[in-house]
Amino acid sequence: MVKNEFNSPVTIDFVPEHSVCAWCGEPAVYELTAIGGKFHNMGAFFCYPCGEEFFKAVTHAYDLEVLFATKKKQSVNVAPGEEPAEVPRD
Fold first, then answer.
1. Cys bridge to 37: 1, 11, 32, 43, which one at CB 3.0-4.6 A?
2. Following DSSP, what letter does each residue of 1-56 receive, concatenated?
3. Which residues lie below 8 Å from residue 45, measured CB to CB, with a gap of 6+?
4. Mean pLDDT, rounded, for 52-63
5. pTM, two decimal places
6. Residue 40 phi, psi dihedral angles, 5° rounding
């Protein structure tokens, strides 16, 4: 997943006045859009609580993509008969 200049997989934009949250119908405070990955260009208007949930979901998906890409890269670089190195976990 691509990240923007703020090192985030999500862009944050203003919403038109009187916009409502796509998930709960409460007043929206920002528009969030995922950048890259399987959620590329998915986004909507969100209130604060729903926006936090959207951000966590996209960030978690990004973290999983990085983990799987790292594991795949390591398994490609393993010589026959060798065990792949473990990926450090946070």
1. 1
2. ----TTS-SEEEE---TT-B-TTT-SBP-EEEEE-SGGGTT-EEEE-HHHHHHHHH
3. 15, 19, 20, 21, 22, 28, 30, 31
4. 82
5. 0.62
6. -55, 130
